[in-house]
Amino acid sequence: MADNFPPDTNRRAGRKGGNTSGKVADFRYKRPAQPEQKKAGNTRQKPREPRSGSSQHRPQHHPQHHTGQPEGNSHRGQHRPRQAYAALDLGTNNCRLLIARPSGENFTVIDAFSRVVRLGEGLAMSGRLSDAAMERTLAALHVCAEKLRRRHVHLARSVATEACRRAANGAEFIDRVRRETGIMLDIITAQEEARLAVLGCHILLEGGDGPAVIFDIGGGSTELVLIEPEGKVPRILDWQSVPWGVVSLTDTVGRVEGDHGERLARYEEMRRIVSESFAPFAERIAMRARGAPDIRLLGTSGTVTTLASLHLELPQYDRRAVDGLIVPAHSMRDISLRLSGMSPEERGELPCIGQDRAELVVAGCAILESIMDLWPAERLGVADRGIREGILRSLMASQLQAAADGAGKS
Known about the structure:
The chain is of the alpha/beta class.
């Protein structure tokens, strides 16, 4: 396969707001023309320092970035604070924001935000974003806009993924977000989504020789990327995106689960649907899997971090314990099968799942097992980082390159 991403032929790549180049596009934050009278509450999430290892296995690389206490905007002595950059990822289920400043070759997170917005709820059936989903999402984006203003962000990139790609009113919603919040969302293609996810988490890939697979299970789609690790950025060998994420798969198969036997049958139907979608990619990479000296697999998503938390039997989610963890594949399969047979109420009572994830985690398990079938690694790497981190690194690298080019011309 080609080293670069192939054309995105199964998406509306040419629609308004789409970025089909696969290259970094910088979008400077702009305030809305008229301030909104109604503001959402400011929910704050304290960033944590990523964990460099685990009690079982230690990653072979240093963390890609550092996080710490949010910094103020005051000047220290005569020095102005370094410029802040922001990355916003609006997915089918979540709205997430990171604001960071460069720190050598890495960066320091100074503010973060995450909220479940369920933007794609009902999209599989109606083909449109619902009014309720758009209102929930706008409330979260108003919080993000306030953080961008307060942190004096120099450069931001805000992306929207599968829900806005698929929805008939996706571009219309993007325009409304710009008018009401000042945030300029870019509806990126599946290929750009996959590239950014790889850029954001590949540093956590377990050491070894030969190609590896990195995947991102989202709310509305799942991206799989076959890479050849080399240098600072891995080489892309092949990739695929399928329109199955935890929300779209749940909505398509149905949310009524029935008794234990019916729940297991529902799970198997999810597995069948996803495996059929993965089949072309599985066929293309089968020879590489058989011939690879080291079969390595790394996942970034709420599904893998949730299952990793259950594997560790954490009383509550702890990013430091999960980010960079290496988990035996059979453990993830055992947890997936156990969850698929539980009722939503039983799953909701488990630590690190709760009611928000209780209904959707089974679809994530079905997708994860299908991925482990096509790339049969003995261990699974877990990353609590992805698109946002990839965006930040792209933004900072592009600014450094621009500065270097400017210095060379002077």
